[in-house]
Amino acid sequence: MSARPLALVVEDDLDQMSLLRRHLDREGFDVFSAGDAESAISAFPHIDPSLAVLDLLLPGISGTECARLVRETFPRCFLVISSVLDVTSYPTADAALPKPVRGAALRRAVAGVDR
Q: Helices 14-26 and 103-110 sit at what angle, rounded to 10 degrees?
């Protein structure tokens, strides 16, 4: 039996993080979560995510910069941006997941992840 793919979630709102963790677990992912980009980046040598779900409005390093570093470090990782900001201001990603996040929208967003 193969291991579950890993999802990286970078979200500073604990309720949103919990919601994303639950939905991603139901979709078959193990989840590594970080409350800020710095914590996520420090874990890069120890993780290999198939999926990354990133908030844009983070304390410290921005979600946009974190997205760039995820792309650079994990070029095969499926990148999803989740934010309250207008979708037109999202950096280039594989999928957009505007907040508030709904389970059906998350399922659609991660449908393209290579598992």
A: 60
Q: Based on the structure, what is the number of domains in the chain?
A: 1
pTM score: 0.94
Q: Which residue range forms the structural domain that includes residue 56?
A: 6-110
Q: If we measure between CA atoms, which residue out of 105, 16, 102 comes closest to residue 54?
A: 16
* Confidence grade of residue 104 (pLDDT, cut at 50, 70, 90): very high
Locate 70 and state its tokens: 């995820």
Q: What CATH code is carried by the domain that includes residue 50?
A: 3.40.50.2300
